[in-house]
Each structure stands twice: as structure tokens, then as C-alpha cells.
Specification:
The complex is a heterodimer of chains A (about 350) and B (about 400). Chain A has about 350 residues and is of the alpha/beta class. Chain A has helices spanning about 1-15, 25-35, 60-75, 90-95, 110, 155-165, 180-190, 200-210, 235-255, 260-265, 270-275, 285-290, 295-305, 305-315; strands at about 35-40, 50, 55-60, 80-85, 100, 115-120, 125, 130-135, 150, 175, 195-200, 215, 225, 230. The chains are: A alpha/beta (about 350), B mainly alpha (about 400). Chain A: InterPro entries: Bact_solute-bind_prot3 (IPR051455), SBP_3_CS (IPR018313), Solute-binding_3/MltF_N (IPR001638).
Chain lengths: ~350, ~400
């Protein structure tokens, strides 16, 4: 791991010569090399970024990588994935090793400023929770005083954990691992009483346990974790492409457009839908983003709308069976909301 | 004289083209080398700062005074999430030093025993030592760490089992669980300072007695009982003082808390796994170095020593070992340095060493270049200090030519 960071830093320090254009323009670079280099979860986080035995990637974050590739190239397979640990992900993006980071990464002020990234779209509204063994008889996170808690280093989770226990005048013994797999194994072996990470991650990790029914997720959500794609700062063209790729998925759900009916919907009389699908005469929407006219059609064809992607990866169509909750459309009481596409 | 005269007699030195002037050449090469090195350093620095500026990131070590915000599992000094990044790095450094020091001492003792054991006349001991060396020497240290952490320590009884065991045996004081080893912690009462003072005086007195004993042996040929007197001074005297001071020492027992044992003293499995792996891994190399050192002393030395009437123990201590040490110490230094550097594998099992803590800071503060600079500086410093000490020791042990 440390080696990877060192390599990335040396890359940042020495190899940055190639990218010394005055204004960073990742979109042109991506078009020139013909694929999107996407940083994803390297610990097989089912539902967000995981690789099957045949080497195919899937997950909500992976769908976003595919959507961006579909928007730029009209071909969702033009993605190369870089599996990253929580610790390696930021140097990898800073150094230019990857073009975008879609690795269940929380949008926070310091990451937006100090670390030199830009966030805009949120593809999963999450919150931090705790998982415990049922046999402990714990019913609330507030009963965890004195417990050993497994946590991954270099995450907002680690900071929230310290703050939560401090705020509630409780103490705990952190057991900190760099890789999620090691934390999983340690929790499974009884090294810790509780495991903490984003609630979505807890459901995913619970499935990995020897006997998932022995474990339960506690009701408390102790933080806000808006997870979204990150790109390097000062590259608004690329930020636009990545953000609007997500918004296009959300807008498609709002319009009721999915993989099956997208061709049909092109004939729709609704001017919003026509504009969205690039059927409006003389529309420059796609071109202004630096994308083909039918970019939104390509995204929907590749990964479907946001709701489809959600259900397929983490919702009812997946083993995780997570409810839409905060991630429902704004019209259905959730927070997923696409700005007007016009 | 004649030759010199003949040379100077001809007047000016023979004319050589500037191109072949050795003095000038060496200057040119050195200047070119310095310019190239300076350019590389300047270029790396310039490029890094430009890239950082382009990413709107700042460089510098000011961030070390910011609040860390994360907790560290193992800390020997006061630390909380309100402490600074700098404090967190200190915690990591101390943890690195502790595991390195413990590892070096244990590896040296085990290595010495196994190295001598391989030369044993006893077939079983020699073969066992050979097997040990060949196993640990040929497995990567990271796997040895995982072996201890996941293969041994994780399989120990759970903390719940310990709680149950305590209910059945309320008098138990020492526990081994998959959360670590628990034992009573000593609590020093008033007056324990006298005991420590007695101990310190005992050591000084024992050294003084040994020096006097050597002088007396040289003068009279009789050797005073150094071992017995030293033991009396170092062990018996503090014990007597301890008894007279009213035994100012109590024990703080580990008792079951809500989730973990409370009180007492505990050693976590992360430390144990790393410590055992580093010690046993490095010991296998040290064993070979010791064996080579002993083999390197000519057999004639032993025979000559016996011929002079020295007993086998004295022969080893006074003749073989001093000469073997001269062969052993230089490669031993390298093994110590390797052990210190290998301690950075701590990150694999979550032991909060300098690299693990630094990695967390690197990630939270986004200061990759600064943190890596600190890592390199610290490891270079520790290694250089170790080398300096070992070089001093080596010089002391070197053959004094008379």
C-alpha cells in the first residue's frame, strides 16, 4: 500500500511534466486516450464496486464510471478500473493516475478544498452506522461504551467515530486496519465487538460474514455521508461531464425513461424529454458539455436510469436489499434531484 | 635524488594537452556531477510545487499543529482525538521504537541460542535448530506476521470465554484471549523510590566490585566470587529495602468490564503478532551469523586454550566468543537495521506504528509529500543512530594490535 502511495507521489512530483498544460483538461485527455480511468473500491464492496470471478466490475459506483464512458464515447466498455484502498484513493486522483474517483467517497469540506478535489453530484446518500453480533445483546450504539470497534483508517468514519464517542462521553478501543478485508476478518474473528462504516457498507459486509444472521446493524446513524464522484480541482469541464452523467440517470428516472423504452421515448411529444434525449432540433446541450448529441440516450442504454441502477446493485434486485430511503427521487420524499436539463 | 634531479633538471613539466590534464579532468567531472544532482533536486522540487499549486494544494509542515481527530489504538503517551497530528506522529514513533527494541533484544537472544544450537553435538537439538532457521529464513516477514495474527492469536479464546472462566475461577489473574494478554499491573506505593535507588546503587556497586576483582586477580591470581557478590548487591539488597519499606507495591487486577477487561496490564495481539514475527524472523538470520562467527574462529584457538588449562566455559567466554564477535557484529548491525525497517509492516495488522499513523494523517490532511519526507527522515535517523552505536561497539570489540 505504502509503495503505491510513494509511487503516486513520485508521479506527482516528477512525472507531471506531460500534464503541464496551463489549464487541466481531463475531458480532452480522456478523449485522446480513448478510455476513462476510473478509481473504484478495491475491497470488493458488493453493491458499489466489486469484481466477479470473471473479472467483470459491477456496482453503483461502477455504473457511474460506465455512464461517463457512455456519455463520452457512446460505449460503456471504454472504462479501465483502478481498484483502490481508502488510503490510496486520494493520492491516486491527485497524481493523475485516475481520471475520476467513484469509490463510495464522502464529500466533505476539507476534501473539496485542502485535498484539491471537486465534488458536485451525490450518487448515494449514506450515513455511518454500527454492526454488532446479536449475542452481545446491544440494542443501541449508546450502549457501546468500552467496546473494541473495528474501523478502516483514512476514512471520515474514523473521525466520526472519535467525535461520536467523545460527544456522548463514552470511551472505546479502536482497532484500525488499512484494508477493509482485514477489518472484516478481524471483526469476524471476534477481535472487535462492533464494526463501523457507512450503513450501506455494513449491509454489504454483513453478507460476507460466516453467518450473516448472527449480526445486526444498530439503528443509530451517526453522520451524514454523501457519497459521490470526485475529480481534480480546477477542471470544471470534466466536473460537468461527470456530474451531469449522474444527473442524466436521475432525470431519466424522473421522466420514466429506462433501457427498454428509450428509443420509443425519443418520439415523445414532451419537449423536456425530447431535449434530454437530443431530439430537439439545433440543440447544443450535448455539444456545450463537450459530448455527442445523444449522450443521455447512451447513458440510459448503458446503465439504465438511477432507479434501475439502484435496485440492480443495492436494492431489491441485489442481495443487499437496501431501501431507497434518502436515495428516492425528491418527488418521492428522497434527496435525489436532478437540476433542470436545458 | 638523482632521478628527481634529472626530472626537475629539464625545466617545465612535460606539456600535456588540457584535455588530458588529470587534475582538470577530475574537477570537471566533479562539477558536472554536482550540477546534475542539483538540477535533479531542483527539478523535482520545482515540479512538485508547481503541481501542488495547480491542484490548489499547499505545501509545508504547518498542518502538524492541527487537531488529529482520530483515535490511536496503542499509545504509551497521553493521546486523544483532540491532540495534534504531531502528537499522533510521536505516538507512532514511540510504538515503532518499542516494537523494534523488543524485537532486537529477543531476536538476539533467540538467534544466539539457535546459532549455538546448530553447532551442538546433540543430533536432535542441531536438527531442530536447522529446521527453525530454514523455515523462518525462507518465508517473507509479512506472511510470518499474518501467521501469528490470523493463524495463532485470532484463534485464542474470545473475551466472553474469559468472562465465563473468571466466573468459575474468580482467583485467576492471568488471561490469554484473542484480544491480547491480560495480567495484573503493579501499582507503586510511597517508598518504592527507595527500592529503585537501592537497585541503582546495587548495579554501580557490582560494577565497581567487578573492576576491583579483576585488579585483584591480576595481582594475586585469585578470583573473588564476582557472581555471588553481584547477585547479592543487585537482587538481595533491593529486596531487603523493599521489605523494610513495608512492601510499597500492590497489584491492579484486570476485571471484566462491559465489553473488555478493565484495569490491569494488557498487551494487544497486534503488538504480539508483529513482535513475535519480527523477532523469530530476524532470529533465523542472526542464528546463521552467530554460527558463521563461531565457525570462523580457528580450531587451533580452542586447542591452544585447552592446552593452557582453561576450562571449556572459560574457553568459550574468553577465547572463542571475543574473536567470533568481531565476525558477528558487522552483519548483525545489518539485521538490526532490517528489523527496524521491517517494523513498518505493522500496518498490515493495524499496529499503530509510524507508518500506520502517518498513513492516516497523509489521508486525512492530504499531505503526501510532507509525510513521506518525515517517514524517510525518521527511519534514516533511527538507522544511523543504531549504526553509530554498533560501530562503536564493533570498534571496542576489534582486535587490539600490540
Amino acid at each position: 500500500m505504502a509503495k503505491k502511495i510513494v509511487a503516486a507521489v513520485i508521479g506527482a512530483a516528477v512525472m507531471g511534466i506531460g500534464a503541464q498544460a496551463a489549464q487541466a483538461d481531463t475531458l480532452s485527455d480522456v478523449k485522446a486516450k480513448g478510455f476513462v480511468q476510473c478509481g473504484v473500491n478495491g475491497s470488493n464492496l458488493a453493491g458499489f464496486g466489486a469484481q466477479d470471478s470473471a473479472g467483470n466490475w459491477s456496482g453503483l459506483d461502477v455504473d457511474l464510471c460506465k455512464a461517463v464512458a457512455a456519455a463520452v464515447f457512446g460505449d460503456a466498455t471504454k472504462v479501465k478500473y483502478t481498484p483502490l484502498s481508502a488510503k490510496d484513493r486520494f493520492p491516486a486522483l491527485q497524481s493523475g493516475e485516475i481520471d475520476m474517483l467513484a469509490r463510495n467517497t464522502t464529500w466533505s469540506t476539507s476534501r473539496d478544498s485542502q485535498l484539491g478535489f471537486d465534488f458536485r453530484a451525490v450518487n448515494y446518500y449514506d450515513g455511518q452506522g454500527f454492526m454488532v453480533k446479536k449475542e452481545l445483546g446491544v440494542k443501541s450504539a449508546l450502549e457501546l461504551s468500552g467496546a473494541s470497534i473495528c474501523v478502516q483508517s483514512g476514512t471520515t468514519t474514523e473521525l466520526n467515530l472519535a467525535d461520536y464517542f467523545r460527544a456522548n462521553n463514552m470511551d472505546f478501543k479502536p482497532v484500525v486496519f488499512e484494508a477493509q478485508d482485514e477489518a472484516d476478518a478481524a471483526y469476524n474473528a471476534g477481535r472487535c465487538d462492533a464494526y463501523t462504516t457507512d450503513a450501506s457498507g455494513l449491509y454489504s459486509i454483513r453478507l460476507k460474514m460466516a453467518n450473516p444472521d448472527d449480526h445486526m446493524v444498530l439503528p443509530e446513524i451517526i453522520s451524514k455521508e454523501p457519497l459521490g464522484p470526485a475529480v481534480r480541482q480546477n477542471d470544471s469541464k470534466w466536473l460537468d461531464v461527470v456530474s451531469w452523467s449522474h444527473y442524466a440517470m436521475v432525470a431519466a428516472e424522473e421522466f420514466g425513461i429506462n433501457q427498454e423504452n428509450v428509443e420509443e421515448m425519443k418520439k415523445s411529444a414532451n419537449p423536456d424529454i425530447k431535449r434530454f434525449l437530443g431530439e430537439e432540433a439545433d440543440s447544443t446541450l450535448g455539444a456545450d458539455l463537450g459530448l455527442p448529441k445523444d449522450w443521455a440516450v447512451q447513458i440510459v442504454k448503458a446503465v439504465g436510469n438511477y432507479g434501475d441502477s439502484f435496485e440492480r446493485n443495492v436494492g431489491q434486485g441485489s442481495p443487499l436489499k437496501i431501501d431507497r430511503g434518502l436515495n428516492a427521487l425528491w418527488t418521492k420524499g428522497g434527496l435525489q434531484y436532478a437540476p433542470p436539463i436545458r | 635524488m638523482a632521478i628527481a634531479d634529472a626530472r626537475t633538471g629539464s625545466g617545465d613539466p612535460p606539456k600535456v594537452s588540457l584535455l588530458y590534464n588529470p587534475a582538470l579532468r577530475s574537477y570537471v567531472y566533479q562539477i558536472v556531477t554536482i550540477v546534475v544532482i542539483a538540477w535533479v533536486i531542483w527539478y523535482a522540487w520545482h515540479n512538485a510545487s508547481q503541481n501542488l499549486a495547480r491542484a490548489n494544494m499547499t505545501a509545508g509542515f504547518g498542518f502538524l499543529n492541527s487537531r488529529a481527530g482520530f483515535d490511536v489504538a496503542q499509545s504509551l503517551i497521553a493521546y486523544s482525538s483532540d491532540s495534534t497530528y504531531f502528537r499522533a506522529l510521536q505516538v507512532g514513533l514511540i510504538n515503532t521504537l518499542v516494537v523494534s527494541a523488543a524485537g532486537i533484544v529477543t531476536a538476539t537472544i533467540v538467534g544466539l541460542l539457535v546459532g549455538i544450537g546448530r553447532l551442538s553435538q546433540n543430533w536432535l537439538i542441531a536438527r531442530l535448530c536447522t529446521v527453525y532457521v530454514e523455515i523462518f529464513r525462507n518465508i517473507p516477514p509479512l506472511l510470518v506476521i499474518f501467521f501469528w495474527y490470523l493463524g495463532v492469536l485470532a484463534l485464542l479464546p474470545s473475551i466472553r470465554t474469559i468472562f465465563q472462566h473468571l466466573e468459575e475461577n474468580p482467583d485467576a489473574v492471568f488471561f490469554i484471549s484473542n484480544r491480547g494478554i491480560y495480567m495484573p499491573a503493579p501499582v507503586f506505593g510511597e517508598g518504592f523510590g527507595y527500592v529503585l535507588t537501592a537497585f541503582a546503587i546495587g548495579i554501580v556497586a557490582a560494577i565497581a566490585f567487578a573492576i576491583w576483582a579483576n585488579a585483584r586477580q591480576r595481582a594475586t591470581g585469585k578470583r573473588p566470587p564476582v557472581l555471588m557478590v553481584s547477585l547479592g548487591l543487585i537482587v538481595l539488597m533491593p529486596v531487603v529495602v523493599f521489605l523494610f519499606a513495608g512492601m510499597p507495591l500492590s497489584l491492579d487486577y484486570a476485571i471484566p468490564g462491559s465489553f473488555n477487561m478493565r484495569g490491569g496490564m494488557s498487551i494487544g495481539p497486534e503488538f504480539l503478532a508483529l513482535f513475535l514475527a519480527l523477532s523469530l524472523y530476524t532470529a533465523s538470520f542472526i542464528a546463521e551469523i552467530v554460527r558463521a562467527g563461531i565457525r570462523g574462529v580457528a580450531k587451533g584457538q580452542t586447542e591452544a586454550s585447552y592446552a593452557l588449562g582453561l576450562r571449556p566455559g572459560q574457553t568459550t567466554r574468553l577465547v572463542v566468543l571475543p574473536q567470533a564477535l568481531r565476525i558477528i557484529i558487522p552483519p548483525l548491525t545489518s539485521q538490526y537495521l532490517n528489523l527496524i525497517k521491517n517494523s513498518s509492516l505493522a500496518v498490515a495488522v493495524g499496529y499503530a506504528d509510524l507508518v500506520a499513523v502517518g498513513g492516516t494523517i497523509l489521508n486525512q490532511a492530504g499531505k503526501a509529500i510532507e509525510i513521506i519526507a518525515i517517514w524517510m527522515l525518521v527511519y534514516v535517523s533511527i538507522s544511523l543512530v543504531t549504526s553509530l552505536f554498533m560501530n562503536w561497539f564493533n570498534a571496542k570489540m576489534a582486535l587490539v594490535e600490540r
